[in-house]
Amino acid sequence: MAVEEEGLRVFQSVRIKIGEAKNLPTYPGPNKMRDCYCTVNLDQEEVFRTKIVEKSLCPFYGEDFYCEIPRTFRHLSFYIFDRDVFRRDSIIGKVAIQKEDLQKYHNRDTWFQLQHVDADSEVQGKVHLELRLSEVITDTGVVCHKLATRVLECQGLPIVNGQCDPYATVTLAGPSRSEAKKTKVKKKTNNPHFDEVFYFEVTRPSSYNKKSHFDIEDVDEVDKMEIRVDLWNASNLKFGDEFLGELRLPLKFLRQSSSYEAWYFLQPRDNGNKSLKPDDLGSLRLNVVYTEDHVFSSDYYSPLRDLLLKSADVEPVSASAAHILGEVCREKQEAAIPLVRLFLHYGRIVPFISAIANAEVKRTQDPNTIFRGNSLTSKCIDETMKLAGMHYLQVTLKPIIDEICQVHKPCEIDPVKLKDGENLENNRENLRQYVDRIFTVITKSGVSCPTVMCDIFFSLRESAAKRFQGDLDVRYTAVSSFIFLRFFAPAILSPNLFQLTPHHPDPQTSRTLTLISKTIQTLGSLSKSKSANFKESYMATFYDYFNEQKYADAVKNFLDLISSSGRRDHKSIEQPILLKEGFMIKRAQGRKRFGMKNFKKRWFRLTNHEFTYQKSKGDHPLCSIPIENILAVERLEEESFKMKNMFQVIQPERRVLYIQANNCVEAKDWIDILTKVSQCNKKRLTVYHPSAYLNGHWLCCKATADNTPGCTPCTGGLPANIQLDIDGDRETERIYSLFNLYMPKLEKMQEACGSKSVYDGPEEEEYSTFIIDDPKETYKTLKLIIEGVGTLEQEHAQYKRDKFKKTKYGSQEHPIGDKSFQTYIRQQSEISAHSI
Q: Where is the C2 domain (predicted)?
């Protein structure tokens, strides 16, 4: 979800690898071990939770998490919890990274010391205040100074234990006095509107002999005073109300202007308590990649986008803009991700990959090494399979992977690693059955393979067969090196990375999947001496089960099917595809005439056929909504039920299902996937009501009839293809950023072209890393790239200058205390000074 800013969209995303924790403090009991899990939080809102690692003080998680961030945030935080069966789970420690510091740790494995957590430090949100200091003349002719403090509203307060009933206390404090006042409690909202004014007498009455100035004693007294605003959650628990954050403002700043209005970020409370030493709590290994894309309207990107999309038609392809990006990037993966998404979006992925694959095949001398390196071709095909083949994996592998994770059959075949009581022959038989079943579902799944993958495999097969006409197997190995080695085998080995399981498997299951993955990979390789592929003798012995011709024939038939052109209609898949599932809270739809419209927790399940919910996972559905009956999916304003992260699924006859997701990321994911899967419905609505129908009227437009057409346009359409929700402008912006980052290499490549076209001798060592088949054509493309990147760079610089002039510190968008904005102001000031 993009944040709109005057002609610009800002996208935020984060990719996190949670590695392991070490040296956690021992449990104060005889066992001393802990059952720990880790959560990922945007400020105080939990958006992801790892599995629980039992009985360990150095738990290994090995989990990956990616999300689009749908709102502003100040901290990305990680909490380590110790599970407690009988009481609330206890927090061991946390890692909190400020948003402006995320780039320091970009894509680097880093050990972070866990910090102590207390209620006074866990704050988020902002408050809107207005202060006015004025002189008041009393009836007797004396003057005193009064402070009016208006608490208007707060936004983004944390939800504590599932609820937020906030109120504010306002305190005028000085060296010898303290006076406090309190607002009303606002129920069930973390965005409370108070709009209450409190008056404080700042100075004692004195003879009125000056105009609009304090006397000397008054000035000293005012300078020592401060106004403090504390936010609290009114709790029914015996432990008292929870602290949500505070703000301290010295009154001396009002001497320059007697009236001041601004937004402020709430701050932690400094209560003087000494926290534990960081070393006492252990550490956590993380890898964080935070990305912020600033995307202009589509016409800004036309020159660079058109240049990239022509890449498949450029002769030679090494002179194309897309190929050049792969040459200058430090890692091919950097270039492959935005290129594949851009070409998929515009329907040009097959000709582009065909062109670069054909060029790579021509440079390959040995058919046994075809597509084995980490080239741009390999990385682009990998990324295409991940995007286009994710649901293919769900249909093919997920049922049996789920069974392996749940049943825990012993499958260890290494005699050294056998546990007490296990039988080697029984384990081999268990593993053989699993391998046989997975091999069968793979080789019989050819009809389900996505069309775009089949078209690419057809191109690879043709190029390889033409280049190595004497090798009859190369047409198979060229395809199997991708579909088995880079697609099915990695998905079996790490199912959590391919969305087949929510978490990294436990050690025993992980070992079973490793053995299966090795065997499947070897079966698919069609190598002449397969037993020799295994370093371990026990694997070679196990593989003897599969040394039959029927396995090789099945692989070849499967490869023939998925690499033949125009083999079948890709819409022939009738099996439902599970798209998303999980617990959420729903409001009763009023299907029963006299039933209560209360809120209940239910297990929701979405396939490409229907949207259902039931009491628990695996139960019979209580309600089923066919996809064709979903007319719109939109957010629901918080004022409707005083609940955050709500959305609505609108059905025929104005029936609406109101749902609350667990957090903002989950809400966005559900809205997106429901919108995509129902996008092609013929009766989709164009308008909707952003608030609920309560007490005889719509809260948004006040219309009284429940069948009144919506008052707000529905959000913009999304691609109907569930798998490929891609923003072409965003991907072009990412490619521009890469070109800009590697500009020195682009210039070096220009020099290499000039050197090569003038001097036709041995290459200079500094230019030997570039593939340049046609120096003149490559130089022309490089010149166009540098011009296009320069133009976009100027547009970004101009936008920043304009924004710098317009932005007000203390506004709702940039409250006082916004460190990222302070850094931005400092950078812009330095740029302005430098330009002057």
A: 1-112, 123-264
Domain membership flag for residue 568: no
Return d(Cα 710, Cα 821) in angstroms, integer. Answer: 38
Check if the beta carbon of residue 23 is closer than 8 Å to that of residue 59. no
**By three-state DSSP, how is residue 336 classified?**
helix
Residue 670, Cα to own-chain centre: how many angstroms?
Answer: 14
572 token code pair: 């022939």
- Domain interval for residue 178: 124-204+221-263
| pLDDT the model gives residue 716 | 57
Report the CATH number that the domain containing residue 658 is assigned in CATH: 2.30.29.30
Is residue 356, in this structure, part of any structural domain at all? no
Whether 519 contacts 442, CB under 8 Å = no
Neighbours of 776 (CB within 10 A): 10
Token pair listed for 325? 């990006």
Strand, helix or coil for residue 573: coil
pLDDT-derived band at 531, boundaries 50, 70, 90? low
pLDDT of residue 706: 85
Residue 714, both tokens = 């529905």
Q: Please, what's the largest Cα pairwise distance for the chain?
A: 113
- Residue 210 has what DSSP assignment? S
What three-state secondary structure class fits 1?
Answer: coil
Task: Please provide the average confidence, as pLDDT, over all residues in the chain.
Answer: 84
Please check whether residue 687 lies inside any domain of the structure. yes
- Looking at the fold, whether 141 and 244 belong to one and the same domain comes out as yes
Percentage with pLDDT > 70 across the chain:
86
Say how far apart CA 262 and CA 532 lie, in whole Å: 73
Kindly report the pTM of this predicted structure.
Answer: 0.78
3-class secondary structure, 400:
helix
Of 104, 101, 107, 57, the closest CA to residue 77 belongs to 101
Same domain, 144 and 5: no
Residue 82 per-residue DSSP state: E
Distance CA 723, CA 732 (A): 19
Read off φ and ψ for residue 120, nearest 5 degrees: -70, -15
pLDDT value of position 836: 36
Q: What is the CA radius of gyration of the chain?
A: 32
C-alpha dist (Å) from residue 84 to 32, 89, 284, 731:
14, 5, 21, 45
Report residue 826 CA to chain centroid gap. Answer: 29
Residues 6+ apart with CB under 8 A from 77: 40, 41, 42, 43, 44, 94, 95, 96, 97
Q: Which residue, 315, 307, 310, is CA-closest to 773?
A: 315
Instruction: Tell me what pLDDT residue 119 has.
Output: 72
Statement to judge: residues 417 and 549 lie in one domain: yes
* Residue 465: other Cβ atoms inside 10 A: 16
Task: State which amino acid sits at residue 716.
Answer: G
Say which residue, 1 or 718, is predicted with more confidence: 1
Distance in angstroms between the alpha carbons of the first and the last residue of the chain: 38
**DSSP one-letter string for 216-261:** HHHHHHHHT-EEEEEEEE---STT-PEEEEEEEEEGGGGGT-SEEE
Tens digits of per-residue pLDDT, 606-624? 987 899 999 998 899 999 9
- Cβ of 386: how many Cβ atoms within 10 Å? 20
**309-340 tens-digit pLDDT:** 999 999 999 999 999 999 999 899 999 999 99
pLDDT at 204: 61
Length of the chain (residues): 836
What CATH number does residue 529 fall under? 1.10.506.10
Q: How confident is the model at residue 143 (pLDDT cuts 50, 70, 90)?
A: confident
